[in-house]
Please model this.
Amino acid sequence: MSTDLVHELKGLIISTLDLKDLDPEQIGDQDPLFGEGLGLDSIDGLELVVSLEKNYGIRVSSSEESRAMLQSVAVLAAHIEAKQRELHQVPESPHS
Amino acid sequence: MSDTACSCDTNAASGNQRPCFVRSAECITAFGDSSATLGKLLEGRVALAATPALMADGGELVPMALRGTFREGSPPRWWEDLLEFLSPVASGGWGSARSPVFFASSNFGIDGLYSTGKRRSSADVPFSTPHGCVQRLRESMGWGPVCWILSHACVSAQLAMDRAADAVSSRRADRALVVSFDYVGPFVSGGFHALKILNTDMPAPFGDVGIGSIGLGDGAGFVEISAEPSKFEIAALGTYNEMYHFTSTEPTGSGFRKLLEPMADRLRNCHPWIKGHGTGTLEPGRIEARTLEEMLPSSPLVSWKGSIGHTLGSCAAVELAIAMCAVDFGSIPGTVGARPPYFATNVMSAPFSPADHDSVLLLCNAFGGAHGSMLLRYD
Model:
């Protein structure tokens, strides 16, 4: 998992959700994003997913996927990396 | 104009209130009228089919059950269909103080505004607003001016029935007609798709599966509520809004409990089967099934949205008409579109007899955790 991506995601969460009083350093990699952690709600979650789709060119197809990927910044970063690997995977030619 | 409900209320006849009854109810779905729909549900048939999320404008294929082919234009594709559907009640002398009409829809003709913006034509505008739709419907049906217009997402028709029953049972009206219609269009389906609850998977109501999805369906219903006794008595009505989450209910099921608590005495004296909301979204489906299993363990639970789709604000009227038709026919369709394992043991997949029960509890939910319920007793 890239530490650059983790840091970038913390910044994206802050800017997307307008969390002006928060610094990226205050968000722990494993902190839950919802509930007792960062305290995000379902509307925040949807805003974040839309922003992630735009910024990272990924597609989130269901609320279940959205809920799973938004557990923490670390889980989110791993999910994005996996999605991007899938996107950039060049299928092998059957003749090669 | 819209009315919303966010309080707990049970409309059981008491004090100065009188009992009220559903004299008739009819609906249309992608399969046809209530009788045709019942037949298909009993066979386990699914009307939902993969359809582009933005319809004529393409997009990911998602489950939809439409009445005919989607088209844009004026009058909108649903207009003639709706007029024909309502023709049996056109001559009923509706729209007076003693016989008011309650119109409900989650979207009315909102897709006309989408189409207007896209085609740069104002031809659709007269059908695009609640007032515009209702005015034209009233004129076409020859109904008087006394009507209500209600819209609160997917509990719209339930709220209309709640208000209509209240008018009758409190003696402000002799009878009331609820008319509800929701036809799917790209503005609506695009919105559901953006919320990540409408995807390529087919809905499996109450099914313990990995990914949930709803399916959207065209539907309309009318319900005649009267003080004149009939086979179907409205034993209780309830509304509650838990305001928890825009696409899910509170995880412990407290919303369902608070909805049903005021009618607990009546439920104890009945042996109902349950027509759940059951869209196919996972969290609300799990919460609904498990809470009902705990509260009413001997009541079988079904959902038909895995077949006809979610008819949105009209689902309460549409599914009431199907439920009444099923009781009259003598066979209740089980849950369609889902296979075991289910979230709860009371989910019924096979048809069963209404004679084993004396009532049906009809439930519906809407965005934000809005709940509506009706307990309907039958002879």
Remarks:
- Chain A has one domain: 3-88.
- Residues 3-88 of chain A form a domain with the Non-ribosomal Peptide Synthetase Peptidyl Carrier Protein; Chain A fold (CATH 1.10.1200.10).
- The longest helix of chain A spans residues 73-88.
